[in-house]
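Sync notes, pocket subgroup
Present: LS, DG
LS reminded everyone that the earlier model was apo-only. Rerun requested with adenosine-5'-triphosphate included. Inputs:
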Amino acid sequence: MSAPAHMSSRGWWPTALVILGGFAFAWLIMQQDLWASVLGQLFPGARSPVYPVPLVDLTLQHLALVGISSGLTILVGIPLGIWVTRASGRDFRDIVAAGVDFGQTFPPIAVLAIMMPILGFGLRPAVVALFLYGLFPVVSNTVAGLEAVPEALKDAARGMGMKRLQILGRVELPLAARIIMAGVRTSVIVNIGTATVAAAVGAGGLGDPIIGGIQVQNLAYVLEGALVAALLAILADMTLARAEELVTPRGLG
Amino acid sequence: MGWMPPSLRVTGSPRKALSNRQAGQGGAIVRNMTVISGRPARRVDRVAAFGAVVALAGCLLVPFAEFRANRIVSGAPEPLSSAGTAGWLLLALAVAAFGLSVAFRPAWRGRGILILGAGLVALMPWALGFAAVSLLIGAGSPARVSIGSGAWLVMLGGAIIWFAGARGLGRSRLKPVLAVAVIGLWVSSAVFGGVPELSLAREYAVQSTRFWGLVREHLMLSGLGLAFGTLIGVPLGALASRNNLVRSATLSVVGVIQTVPSLALLGLLVFPLAAVGLPGIGTLPATIALTLYALLPIVRNTYVGLAGVDEGALDAGRGMGMSKAQLLLRVEAPLALPLVLEGVRAAAVLVIGIAAVTAFVGAGGLGILVFQGWGQQADDLTLLGALPMVALALFADLAIRGVASVAVSPGIRQEEVAR
Amino acid sequence: MIRLDNVVKRYGDTTAVDGVSFEVPTGEVCVLIGPSGCGKTTTLRMINRLIEPSGGTIEVDGRDIMSARPEELRRHIGYVIQSVGLFPHLTVADNIATVPRLLGWKDERIKPRIGELLELVGLDPDEYAGKYPRQLSGGEAQRIGVARALAADPPVLLMDEPFGAVDPLNRGHLQGEFARIQRELKKTVIFVTHDVDEAIRLADRIALMRDGRLQQYDTPEALLDHPANKFVHDFMGADRALKRLGRVLVGDAMRTDIEVARILDAGDIDRDACGDARFVYLVDGNGLLRGWVDCHDLDEGRSIDDAVTEIDWREASVAPDISLKDALSTMIGLGFRSIPVTESGTLVGSITLSSIEATMTSSDSHITQLSGETLSSEEPS
Ligand SMILES: Nc1ncnc2c1ncn2[C@@H]1O[C@H](COP(=O)(O)OP(=O)(O)OP(=O)(O)O)[C@@H](O)[C@H]1O
Ligand SMILES: [Mg+2]
């Protein structure tokens, strides 16, 4: 489909806006006292208005969990997607495509839940579950993006005497970059969401105050965690959307 | 303004791209390339060989089952041999599959691989049942035997081998026959075999009345979210295709909602609801959240579906004297239907997953079993919540695809749409 | 009858159609032609109100089009577009039945109508009724598009480059088919095209437009022989004598009184057919063209094998429904001075260079007149 004109905006200001948003967010989560006083006024009845673990720590835990799992996802998923579209891996293309398709119908929580009996409690199963679940959109979009590159272009590249790796690097990947990046974005956003729930298996992060707040019936905790988690996800989404535009070669989009 | 929600990737379009390749035009390209590169058909079926290696690893390297003295304590690993003859049979099937996949001429191996793969999958519950029965002899009644990672791996390997065989075989009457046979063996193992002795089955036996109530709740919550999402999303998507302002507003708002973690959204919903005196906990916020999450795929696909209707068909319709309503009903709606249904399918799968999270705000559903299982560190309880959830999602996926295959005109099935 | 009176269409500052007036008598084909962007489509679409005119009046069969609801109007005007616009989700039969259903016809009436129309456009109803558009070739789809437009038997037909997307060979066929159907049905047609040859072949009158203005509205002969200005002259092209041949069908110009030799059962041919002529065509027992016989050779006592030249009618004959121009082109291509005319292989006549010459000299007065003409006339302002 034709993208709306503003999606391909290439000015510096959208990037500046995203960076500014990042700084604002960082500032916000460091104002522990500000949170305490505002939440204290909103919930005068609460025993303690802010969650005992500082917001910065919760956010960093969250980011670490998502960062590690999504990093692994990208490191494994993109090469896997590339491999199954090469001659050497084409045998596996169909099974990988079918598996990825099948995996995407799994509820993310179910993946987390199934990892638990195998890997125990805590950070480890969370990272593995997020990594696995994040693979699906990345692999699927990598394959789709590479296969969407017109055969004629690859032929033209071959005709110009490019070697296979050159065709991949100079023709296929640049043309598929946007779709691959969209897969990464979907994957990271879903991971941020699932990581919130992973607090329930002891992985920490911004889900802690939400789940804890519901358990001890302290709505101030819930608001604190939910607000920051939502902001973090939106900020990450904006950042990755920007990245999606920046990796798109100028001639496209 | 510089960014958009992850909205403009049409749900299912990569999937479409993949499956298009498998069937029809794309296949020709792949074949062509094989010819051009002059590569002969492989002697080794690498996919089946990989499946066999996975199955062998499951047989030999990791515990097949786990024995636990009671429901809570962590288990002791038990090898494949605990399943007795059935275990050895599994090993034999995996070895045979490996042998067939590397050693035989392609013409011979199609059926063989198919049968071996299906066999590995079919035998699994019987083998687990045998293991459970034999390990539980002499153990106390609280003792349990649960499925080990080895069993999961063997099953995964079997499925891969099965897939490889099915792909290599083309159209064959053997395929449905095997599928029925596998289902038959699974069901019979639950009735006549040792499956009821497995810890998951024991857990189910304990929880059975509560379990079905929770399934019903889960279905009701997801159904409500999906129904409201469809009722709101389809008209919204249609409006978006008519009006640019509505389009950019709707897609951005719905896209932002989609990025917010479900747990956070549920947490945030408490406050506006409380402000107007409504319960912030329970079915109401859950239904609202599920509706909101269902919106994105439905709105987006409806919009893309309607916006993508062939200009020529619209012009012809108008030129023949259709009114706006007739044009929508007779031309636009049927042409957009495949994408709309694909949106509903994606929304259904999404909502069934998110419905699990609503258990946190006291809305019930299978999520309750998962979270209680986590709380008590009782793996069986967790799985009793998680596995049926997977089954529901897969079932919804299949059901809506089934509806699509009947409701979508054969003139536009597979192909066309979301260019 | 369709009458346009001083019709104008403006888009902001641009005037797409600028004071166009012409009248198409009932049962005639008017071809709208002109360079890209000259306003042909806009003019056509104003007639069924897919575009609302900014000024002027349009009447269809004596009624101002603005007096009816647009939907009502359109249901009584057939409309065929270049991109065909078949509904991909409906079968061929349902596509054709669209307008009758909108008009509330009963099923008993629609069903036979579908068969009738498919036969009319030369497609087997049993084979095609249940197909979906994606199963059709481009030419077949175009035929269905025409059948669909004719479904409710509208007196008026609007066609916007209906054969624009079809390859030249199929295009010729479709044109022949259209001419045949039009002879049968006598609709009032406005037909938009880019292609001068198509216009000359199909038009009773041609309306030539440029930059939204009508340059000349007259018969093809008049446009060829008396162009109103230099633009018309240039647009119609240099090969006007040849183009005129495009107006004449082979079937109308061929000789039918020809001698043929038959193949006799004994492997011999019936030699009596050779009269004064040097060559006669050879047909088999079913009348199928097989080749020709050199009577001279026979007279000199050569064997039948030597005297007979075998030909394949698919390559070395022409159909009666193609134009003389195309026949001439085939003849030149084959290097023949005369070419047999066959209908699915059955010999029905022949065309010779001299018969083509005769056709040209019958309008020779125009040709001499043209050759001496000085073409400096200004465009009308
Ligand atoms: N909706 C519109 N808005 C503005 N200008 C238009 C619009 N539609 C047509 N035009 C202009 O009006 C002029 C006539 O267009 P029209 O489509 O009638 O041309 P045409 O003769 O059919 O050309 P073609 O042979 O390329 O189909 C063109 O210059 C076109 O740019
Ligand atoms: Mg036009």
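DG: The first helix of chain C runs from residue 40 to 47.
LS: The CA atoms of residues 100 and 126 of chain C lie 20 Å apart.
Action: DG to write up.
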